[in-house]
Amino acid sequence: MAASSRAQVLDLYRAMLRESKHFSAYNYRTYAVRRIRDAFRENKNVKDPVEIQALVNKAKRDLGIIRRQVHIGQMYSTNKLIIENQETPRT
Question: Which part of the chain is the Complex 1 LYR protein domain (predicted)?
Answer without folding.
Answer: 7-64
